[in-house]
TrEMBL record:
<dbReference type="Pfam" id="PF13489">
    <property type="entry name" value="Methyltransf_23"/>
</dbReference>
<dbReference type="GO" id="GO:0032259">
    <property type="term" value="P:methylation"/>
</dbReference>
<keyword id="KW-0489">Methyltransferase</keyword>
<feature type="binding site">
    <location>
        <position position="37"/>
    </location>
    <ligand>
        <name>S-adenosyl-L-methionine</name>
    </ligand>
</feature>
<feature type="binding site">
    <location>
        <position position="56"/>
    </location>
    <ligand>
        <name>S-adenosyl-L-methionine</name>
    </ligand>
</feature>
<dbReference type="InterPro" id="IPR010233">
    <property type="entry name" value="UbiG_MeTrfase"/>
</dbReference>
<dbReference type="GO" id="GO:0061542">
    <property type="term" value="F:3-demethylubiquinol 3-O-methyltransferase activity"/>
</dbReference>
<keyword id="KW-0949">S-adenosyl-L-methionine</keyword>
<feature type="binding site">
    <location>
        <position position="122"/>
    </location>
    <ligand>
        <name>S-adenosyl-L-methionine</name>
    </ligand>
</feature>
<feature type="binding site">
    <location>
        <position position="77"/>
    </location>
    <ligand>
        <name>S-adenosyl-L-methionine</name>
    </ligand>
</feature>
<comment type="function">
    <text>O-methyltransferase that catalyzes the 2 O-methylation steps in the ubiquinone biosynthetic pathway.</text>
</comment>
<comment type="pathway">
    <text>Cofactor biosynthesis; ubiquinone biosynthesis.</text>
</comment>
<keyword id="KW-0831">Ubiquinone biosynthesis</keyword>
<comment type="similarity">
    <text>Belongs to the methyltransferase superfamily. UbiG/COQ3 family.</text>
</comment>
<dbReference type="InterPro" id="IPR029063">
    <property type="entry name" value="SAM-dependent_MTases_sf"/>
</dbReference>
<protein>
    <recommendedName>
        <fullName>Ubiquinone biosynthesis O-methyltransferase</fullName>
        <ecNumber>2.1.1.222</ecNumber>
        <ecNumber>2.1.1.64</ecNumber>
    </recommendedName>
</protein>
<keyword id="KW-0808">Transferase</keyword>
């Protein structure tokens, strides 16, 4: 099986892995948005007692927080250094109910189809060569009636100005080169990937940043960052 990953992307995040849990580092935005996306997920599917898969878990920010909500979480990634950081953080903090594994989502889908109540894939689709393949694998991994939650970046002039020029070069919230504009996905494109994978799109929300208050919020503006909630039919 061909691995659906970009070696340069894996190396980029691997080099930053030691800073993953530093809330003032390049990963500060992830720490800031995590409570928002966690509550949004729980609004559709309370996590206590659920079997959850976090695809592209990185250093484990979302995986760890879902486990603390009572889920049994498996976080997967292909960035070896980031996974080691996630495992170390879980040991140091005593987080129970979370495990990490270095495996491609497509390979796991072949191994464990229909195994999870909830599948999340946040801030990853814009970093892989074939995002539709990831969505298909997520759909195969979730149980009938289960939920798939995805997030990524829209592709338009506003997202280029805000997510790349603004965030990476003006405000320097992220390292320059974090994102590649051509890999951003319009909501219509992601919706088509979901439909092709047999998922029913239930809801979408935009994630906005206010540079004056330095706060994120969820709303109807999906022009830059956005999240979608899908369900696999029974």
């Amino acid at each position: 099986m061909m691995i659906n990953a970009d070696p340069q992307e894996l190396a980029k995040f691997g080099d930053l892995a030691h800073r993953w849990w530093d809330t003032e580092s390049e990963f500060k935005p992830l720490h800031q948005i995590n409570p928002l996306r966690l509550d949004w997920i729980c609004g559709f599917s309370p996590l206590a007692g659920k079997q959850v898969l976090d695809v592209g878990c990185g250093g484990g920010i979302l995986s760890d927080s879902m486990a603390r909500r009572g889920a049994q979480v498996l976080g997967i990634d292909l960035a070896t250094k980031a996974l080691k950081v996630a495992q170390l953080h879980a040991m140091e903090t005593g987080t129970e109910g979370v495990d990490y594994r270095e495996v491609a989502v497509e390979a796991l889908a072949a191994e464990r189809p229909a195994s999870f109540d909830v599948v999340t894939c946040m801030e990853m689709l814009e970093h892989v060569p074939d995002p539709s393949s990831v969505v298909r694998a997520c759909a195969e991994l979730v149980k009938p009636g289960g939920w798939v939650f995805l997030s990524t970046l829209n592709r338009n002039v506003k997202s280029f100005l805000f997510a790349i020029l603004g965030a990476e070069y003006v405000l320097k919230m992220l390292p320059a080169g974090t994102h590649e504009y051509a890999r951003f996905l319009r909501p219509s494109e992601l919706a088509q990937f979901c439909r092709d994978a047999g998922l029913d799109l239930q809801s979408s929300r935009g994630l906005s940043y206010n540079p004056l208050t330095q706060r994120y919020s969820l709303g109807s503006d999906t022009d830059v960052n956005y999240l979608v909630a899908c369900r696999r039919p029974l």
